[in-house]
Write a structure and sequence with these properties.
mainly beta, Lipocalin, twelve-stranded antiparallel sheet, 5% helix
Length: 234
């Protein structure tokens, strides 16, 4: 089973990824009431972003991001959990010759299981995160400052006692600013995603009674993302 999980993660990483800060994980709650969790996560992404303002409307192609995050969760009930995200993320945009630094990234989310069976559960989740990345290009200070929001619904299916697959459709929303400052002059442009609807699929494998690894592949009409992590429950 572990070999199957590792193979899944390696194959998934060969796809082009999408702009996103954190893995979504299972759409269902995975913590018991009063239980805590801690995870270390990595996400890599690429997407097209719409830039508008000051009479300009353009598309930035293949905007990339990388994120390293801690995910801290708590089980409010057996079917409802809440978590926070803390870490760093960057942005790279070849169209602007922009190679941004790793700025502070943070977010929060919640998951709710609304139906359970022996091996199949259904749930819904909400996640929002905020990100910032800066760079100086040809003497101009440029900053990406944006937030992402994802709402997903779908199943978690138990393949065995230690392995489960998950996923489903999601609604994705990105909004923010692209800011430029040069000496006493400044300009701000609006940032938006090009595709609002997508889906994702993932695999989670238990390493022991408290630890697990997971990886997932997300996609929209013009973007892809890969995220992975290792977490503990206590």
């Amino acid at each position: 089973m572990l070999l199957l999980a590792v193979t899944f993660l390696l194959v998934t990483m060969t796809y082009s990824p999408a702009l996103a800060v954190a893995p979504l994980g299972t759409p269902t709650a995975g913590l018991k009431q009063g239980q805590f969790s801690a995870a270390f996560e990595y996400a890599i992404g690429e997407a097209d972003l719409e830039v508008s303002g000051h009479g300009i409307s353009e598309t930035l192609k293949d905007v990339e991001s990388n994120a390293f995050l801690a995910n801290l969760g708590y089980g409010i009930t057996d079917d409802w959990e809440f978590y926070v995200l803390l870490g760093v993320a960057n942005v790279q945009a070849d169209d602007l010759d922009f190679d941004g630094d790793y700025g502070f990234a943070y977010g929060l989310g919640t998951k709710y299981t609304f139906a359970r069976d022996e091996s199949l559960s259904w749930g819904a989740m909400f996640q929002i995160d905020w990100n910032k990345s800066e760079d100086k290009v040809s003497g101009v200070d440029i900053e990406f400052d944006y937030y992402e929001m994802t709402i997903a619904v779908g199943p978690t299916y138990e393949l065995s006692d230690t392995m489960r697959i998950y996923g489903g459709p999601f609604f994705y929303f990105l909004n923010g600013d692209l800011k430029g400052n040069y000496e006493s002059m400044s300009a701000t442009f609006d940032l938006e995603e090009e595709s609002m609807f997508g889906g994702y699929v993932g695999l989670e494998v238990d390493l022991d009674q408290s630890a697990s690894i997971y990886g997932e592949f997300q996609f929209t009409g013009d973007a892809w993302t890969f995220g992975t992590g290792i977490g503990w429950k206590f």
